[in-house]
Inverse folding.
């Protein structure tokens, strides 16, 4: 084992404009479709990994936001550490892992994307294992599909691919290409009852899934073109439509997944009212939960944020622009 047994990485979460929903291969997290996202610069996870052959417990330990984590969360991290050791071709020692989110975990922001991107980069570096960003993206994907995109900064596309090596993300536009803002309206802080990992395996049970997938080539092209030309009026309708299509698939799966709360729908109605009545250029998207992400340009952000805070049921508003990809940093968490 290399002498560099400890490393720390920082990864931004991301918000998908065209969603990843549904797996073709659940063990490798090969998706049914390409997806496109913006890596968030201001909502990120920092993770320190230390491989410790002398661990007194002879087991992995995991801390998230200062508290010991056990059960399925810890097992998922241990399985990911197994993958990293397997790539390095070693019989692995136990690891000590600490992770910190700069946003409340209970805020409903997808923390698995930033968590598995940071864990992949820190764990590989701590082993002295040099992987290029393509290999890191494939590795992160197996922890959480959306983590494959957080390896890269700015605007990113994850190619569906057909096997482990080809299902990886790549940058479409750098972060400084377009200063879009994601305002996250938090309406519930409850942990979701059905994780996205199990939701992905249900997508094919919806009669609407085939129709959504068939429509995506066009939607992906529209989003790529809108990003290239910084055209919010072209981007917005495409992201709203895919968020609604994904939730239609979720709602019509067996069993049915209904992530929305009354406040979710109230925000969608408000966004459309602000656009129609006031010409406010803002569009929505929603992940696998009840919180709503509002996408706008900096000039509209203050107006959108203050309107959001006046809506019943909005508990908090978080904000982020595009940011950098996953990087190693010097400041360790322990
Ligand atoms: O990476 P996962 O398994 O948490 O799935 C993410 C699913 C969505 O957030 C709903 C969509 C996406 O592309 O991020």
């Amino acid at each position: 084992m290399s002498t560099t047994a400890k490393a720390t990485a920082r990864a931004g979460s991301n918000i998908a404009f065209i969603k990843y929903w549904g797996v073709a291969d659940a063990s490798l997290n090969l998706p049914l479709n390409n997806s496109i996202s913006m890596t968030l610069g201001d909502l990120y996870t920092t993770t320190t990994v230390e491989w410790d052959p002398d661990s007194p417990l002879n087991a992995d330990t995991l801390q998230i936001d200062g508290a010991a984590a056990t059960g399925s969360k810890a097992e998922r991290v241990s399985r990911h550490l197994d993958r990293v050791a397997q790539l390095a071709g070693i019989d692995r020692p136990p690891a000590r892992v600490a992770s910190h989110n700069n946003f409340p975990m209970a805020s409903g922001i997808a923390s698995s994307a930033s968590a598995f991107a940071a864990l992949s980069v820190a764990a590989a570096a701590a082993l002295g294992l040099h992987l290029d960003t393509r290999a890191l993206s494939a590795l992160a994907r197996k922890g959480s599909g959306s983590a494959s995109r957080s390896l890269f900064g700015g605007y990113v596309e994850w190619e569906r691919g057909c096997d482990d090596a080809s299902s990886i993300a790549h940058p479409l536009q750098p972060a400084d290409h377009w200063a879009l803002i994601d305002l996250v309206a938090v309406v519930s802080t409850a942990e979701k009852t059905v994780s996205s990992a199990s939701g992905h395996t249900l997508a094919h049970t919806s009669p609407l899934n085939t129709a959504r997938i068939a429509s995506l080539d066009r939607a992906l092209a529209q989003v790529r073109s809108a990003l290239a030309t910084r055209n919010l009026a072209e981007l917005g309708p495409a992201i709203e439509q895919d968020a609604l299509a994904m939730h239609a698939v979720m709602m019509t799966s067996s069993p049915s997944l209904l992530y929305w709360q009354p406040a979710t729908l109230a925000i969608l109605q408000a966004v459309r009212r602000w656009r129609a009545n006031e010409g406010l250029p803002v569009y929505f998207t929603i992940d696998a939960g009840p919180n709503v992400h509002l996408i706008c340009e900096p000039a509209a952000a203050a107006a959108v944020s203050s309107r959001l805070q006046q809506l019943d049921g909005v508990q908090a508003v978080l904000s982020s622009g595009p940011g950098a990809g996953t990087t190693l940093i010097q400041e360790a968490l322990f």
